[in-house]
Structure formats: structure tokens, C-alpha cells
Amino acid sequence: MRKFSFMLTALLAFVLVATACSGNNGANTPANNNNTTTPPANNASEPPAEEDITQKKVTISVYYPTPDRVEDRALEDDKIRRFNEVFPNVEIVKSDWQYNPSEIGIKMGANEAPTLFNTYASEGKFLAEKGWAADITELFNNYEFKDQMNPVLQDLFMVDGRIYGIAQQGYPTGVVVNKKMLDEKGVAIPPYNWTWDDMLQAAQAVADPDAGISGIAPMGRTNDAGWNWTNFLFTAGGDIQQVVDGKVTAIFNSEAGLKALEYYNKLKWEANAIPQDWALNWGDAVGAFAQGRTAMVIAGPDGPVDQALNQGGMRLEDILVYPIPAYEQGGKHYGVLGGDFLVINPNATKDEQEIAFHYATFDYFSDKGLESLERNIQDRKNENKYFVPAVLQYYKADSEYGQKVTELFKKYDNVYQYNQETLSLIDGKPESQYNTQDYYGAMTNVIQEVFSKQGVNMQEQLDSAAKFMQEKFYDTIQP
Question: Which Pfam families match (predicted)?
Fold first, then answer.
């Protein structure tokens, strides 16, 4: 685990060691008939040593959690305090801007984006190609723990061999199930190695539309709807786009895409298993799960589990985390690979970028970071709350640090532990390289058509969305 002393050691690695150069084009000249070497000429220059970054006044603005995330804000405040103990020369400004793909261009153009801002897994290539993420390859390659970073996450922000972001935590999308609701209805608990049919049958059996209870709440508005549906596209064997020799082609209107859309149609019109008011975004769907109004929700598992335990008052034993169901027995349990990343503003100065990198990784592999994590768990326990870790972390699970975190989690009964069978089955698949959010939006329109009108021609809807993506976005991408 990294101690604070590492920070200073890492900084010293950037300092060039000055070496003396001999004069007279490197020739040794006899002087006074002896063999001494002529000293360097007065005008010989030595490469200047770089300034010590710990002694320079630097101001950076950093991503700060939203007001509703009280515990996360407390953790960030503690991190800022500890960072300033090591870097008293740095002023840290808290930024309340939350990344939005429709706002980032405006923020960059107005030079209002924070020095260090948050983003999500789909945005790496987009930000890199727009020039809105700093190339941090040199900083990363000089990072002591680069080889212990989790490549499943970190590689999502590697574009053409260059690095544009720092992984924080992530997940393959899964399904969170309220076991108590199934038990009360006498519905058999599905196996973890389940299929689409298993999910549909369980959702249909537990749903009670007259009581406002749904078996599953697939998201139906904002880009969240397209994101949810893509898990079924993947498990059916499909993909979003194909890239050949730089040419991007929409392929989500494939046979696999049709199967996934027909499955959504079944959930709505045959099983009557989704909410009557299906126009839910992430917050709505996760909130419905925490309140016991739906038995299943599709998401990165930690969010729904946290809300169900800490806001919904559910018990640990009533919450089960499943992988996305396979299309058929023996198939893959692909979940859209998502996560949280930090990006450094390319408009920041070299010093600001370097400090931002140190701030982003300050607690990584650190004893102090582990102590802060344990205090957070203890504080939650004192408040009768649970700590719910993300499925994937920035570090390799089998690393020395990863093992220390695992042992820490085992010490506390208020830490949610993911089922090992789920972890062995769940499989992440990265999002598309280009225009991911635009694609999600296009598919949201299709899903809303299917949910609002019975008998929609689903292939036509998929073809129309693919045509839109192709002409509006993919055809503009230069090979």
C-alpha cells in the first residue's frame, strides 16, 4: 500500500539529474605538461533542474460529489485535508459541475471545466478525439502502481495506445432482485446461471399490476432506457456497431437486436411485468426497487443495493445480485461494462495537470486510503448503515492491496458481500467506441414506441434507428 512518502518519491522521479559536460568538444587537452583534464569552459551549459512541484503555488478545481451524497462528501473533505498536509502549496477548489456529454463542449469552450472532472466509461474515445481530455500517458507511465491498476477498467480510457483517464470503480451491469417479494408470492428463486425465460417467468409471477407492483422495472426514459436494453442485445450475441478500416457501421438492427426488442415487448404486453408508468430513468427505477414497488432492477449493482439497504430499510438477506440472464442456457451473461473515471482538463497547465494526477491517485494503494475506507465503514455501522462496494475497483482484485481490502471487508458485518457464483458468471462487455450516448438516445425512442403501442413493427423501428445513427453520426467519422 502506498504511503504518503511515495508521493514525494514519485515527484522526485520527475527531477532531472544534472550531469557535467566536458568542454572543447569533449577532447582532453594537456596543460602545463601534465595529464589533467581541462575544466569545462565558462559558457558550457548544464540542463536546468526542474522546479520542485511541491514548492510551487498551484490551484486546481476538482470534482465534488452532489449534496445528496453526504458520506461521499465527507470522504472527499477528508481527502482534501490530508492532501493539503502533504501538498500545502496547493489550493483545491470544489467544483459542483457533474459531467454531462451535452455540456462538456460548452464548458471547454468557455474554459469553465474543472481541472479534474468525473466521467463515465463510454466517454474515453469521445473526449480524447474532441481534445477534451488531457493525454496523461507520461504521468501514468511514471506512476509507481500502474501495473497494479485493474486493466478491465483502465484500458477503457486507452485510445490508440495513449491514456486519457484514471479508473476509479466500475461494474458489469447486473440485475438486483428483492428475494422477499418473490418469497411472499411463492415464486421460486431463479438460479444464478439464469436465462431470459427464467427472468420473464419470475417477473410475471411476482407482478401485481392492480397493486402497483411490477416484476421488473426496465428503464424507459432518458438514455438510461437504451443503456438497459443494450445488455440484452449483447447477451443475444449482437453488438452496437462494427468498425472496419476506420469505417463505422450500425449493426444493432440485427437478428440479435430484434430478439432483444421482442423480449422487451414480451415483458410489457405478454407478461405485464413492467410498471404501468414505465417512463422511468435510473433514479426512478432504483427508487422503485428500494421502495418495494418492483422486484427487479437492471443497473450497476452497488447503486440499487445501497439505496435498498440504507434508504429502503431492506435486510441483507433479502437482496440478491444476479448477472444479466443469458439468452439461453450455456450462453454468456454479458453486462454493459460501466464505471467512474477521472479526466484531467487539457487546458490546465503542466503543473496543474501533474498536481491533478497526484490528487486523483492520492489514496490509491495507500495505507491512509485504507484507513479512510475503514473509518467510512465504521461511521456507517455507527449509524446502522451498510457499506456497499462497487463490483470492480481501480486495483486488481488479486493484488496485494486488493487482498488487504478484502480482509478489511470481512471484518465488518455491515459490508455487502457479492455472491461468489454471481461474480464467477458476470461478464462485462465494453460500450461502443463512437457516439455511445447518441445511440442510447436513439434506442430509447424505439423502446418507448414498443412500450407505448402494442403491435409495433420492431424491425422497422430498429432499422430506422440504425439509419439515423449511420447518417447523423457514423458516416461523419473519418477513417
Answer: SBP_bac_1
